[in-house]
Amino acid sequence: MATILxxxxxxxxxxxxxxxxxxxxxxxxxxxxxxxxxxxRDLAVVPVPHLTEQMMGAFFTPxxxxxxxxxxxxxxxxxxxxxxxxxxxIVLGVPMYNFSISSTLKAWIDHVIRVGVTFSYSDAxxxxxxxxxxxxxxxxxxxxxxxxxxxxxxxQEAYLRAALGFIGLTDVTVIRAEGLxxxxxxVEAALSGSRRLIGEFAAA
Length: 204
Prior knowledge:
Elements: E1 3-8, H1 17-32, E2 37-42, H2 53-59, H3 68-73, H4 75-86, E3 89-95, H5 103-112, E4 119-122, E5 125-128, E6 134-141, H6 157-166, E7 172-178, H7 184-202
Parallel strand pairs: 1-2, 1-3, 3-6, 6-7
Antiparallel strand pairs: 4-5
Helix pairs in contact: 1-7
Subunit structure: Homodimer.
GO molecular function: electron transfer activity; FMN binding; oxidoreductase activity, acting on NAD(P)H as acceptor; oxidoreductase activity, acting on NAD(P)H, quinone or similar compound as acceptor
Catalytic activity: N,N-dimethyl-1,4-phenylenediamine + anthranilate + 2 NAD(+) = 2-(4-dimethylaminophenyl)diazenylbenzoate + 2 NADH + 2 H(+); 2 a quinone + NADH + H(+) = 2 a 1,4-benzosemiquinone + NAD(+)
């Protein structure tokens, strides 16, 4: 039995490929692992607020020195971190917006990457504290960015791998559906390839 944290970041409630593929994976995973517990966090339905000066100040104030207002300020971030730490598997549905991720997903990342909480510094440099977990990234994008000239414009997958890896999430499997704006045949090929991978990974 595993606890799965499912994060949806598409602003679209319908017609979202990243939502569709993540849902198919979870459905097949549940069929193979009926004891799994899935925690849903939809960043379009309940957006995570962007960082403010007050939040940053609270983050960097030692726990025992925080004011009541600062303690309240970090409650959401603490809850998001607890969800992350409590999960065995993280499933992220991630559409590409303007070569990168949605601002709501970036806000979530800003709340869970916290010094002393999910990573630490030492003389040897930074070290992630969120280890021993599996991540599945369901990436959707209109163009093809995994190869060719557009590869240098991919600030979606590259950023996620870097940010997640920084806190110790290095076991990352990416299921890409790309070329979705390049005609029906490209869409069919992308979905077919993604679903084939989903069938393999969901049963693992």
